[in-house]
Design goal:
3 domains; alpha+beta; six-stranded mixed β-sheet; 259 residues; binds zinc ion; single chain
């Protein structure tokens, strides 16, 4: 088989392993070769060490002739005792899960973690941990499109994003958010809106971002709405310090609240 990229290749091996209820380890990953073996042949445990190592492996190389990744060696049979890893298969990472649930999340952004768990169990036949399922749904991106966008060509007006670990971290920090906007000075003009908080060491923790056309009541309202819906969740009350105060009094305002 041939693949357009190494990522596609490893993704296919990953899905194969999930479907066959096996785990693998990447032994070699270079610019033109990729080699993986059965996990059991690498990580020998007392219960498996008395058996011969598993033969399963796959090797692929990036062929100069067509520039694609081609599988050059494939040992199909696992002769290991790896048939009982239904629980939390390491091949099934949070990002693999996120690709599977993307459609459902688009239909229902409030999709619950427990629904993801049952979806994964039903479709991929694997039990995953709550934490992994939680991470899978936790990089939020919201788009707002111009009303004159066509079905096929959408022109975005605002975009908002927040990373899962930052959202989680905010819930461990004091309920104070500082928001500010700045000019984008690159090829594409626009404004970057940012929300930050401070952690227990008084270090700045960025929690969410948006790119908007201008700093207007409309764009700021939209940003705050996304912040409430995707980051603050059920946490309230929260103190929001707007940009003007933040710029002029940030050091004094926040040192006063220390401790
Ligand atoms: Zn094996």
């Amino acid at each position: 088989m041939r693949f357009e990229s190494k990522q596609q290749l490893s993704g296919a091996v990953r899905m194969w392993s999930i479907n066959h209820n096996r785990e693998f380890r990447v032994i070699e990953s270079k610019s033109n070769t990729w080699f993986a073996k059965c996990k059991s042949s690498i990580e020998r445990t007392p219960s498996t060490s008395s058996y011969p190592p598993c033969d399963w492996c796959v090797r692929a190389v990036k062929k100069k002739t067509h520039g694609m990744w081609q599988i050059t060696k494939w040992v199909n049979d696992h002769n290991c005792l790896g048939d009982m890893i239904r629980n939390n298969n390491t091949s099934l990472t949070a990002s693999v899960i996120s690709r599977h649930i993307l459609r459902s999340i688009e239909d229902d952004p409030g999709l619950k973690v427990k629904n993801i768990l049952s979806f994964v169990k039903e479709n991929l036949k694997v039990d995953v941990s709550y934490k992994k399922a939680w991470y899978a749904r936790r990089t939020m991106v919201e788009w707002s499109h111009h009303s004159d966008s066509l079905d096929r060509i959408k022109t975005f007006k605002y975009v908002f994003w927040a990373f899962g670990p930052a959202i989680e971290a905010f819930h461990m920090c004091r309920p104070v958010i500082c928001v500010d906007g700045t000019h984008l000075r690159g090829e594409y003009k626009g404004k970057l809106l940012v929300a930050v908080t401070q952690d227990a060491n008084n270090k700045i923790l960025p929690i969410s971002y948006a790119i908007v056309d201008e700093e207007t009541i409309s764009s700021w309202s939209w940003f705050m709405e996304q912040l409430r819906y995707n980051v603050a969740l059920d946490r309230h009350p929260i103190c929001v310090i707007p940009s003007a105060v933040w710029r002029h009094e940030s050091s004094s305002a926040l040192t006063r609240s220390r401790g």
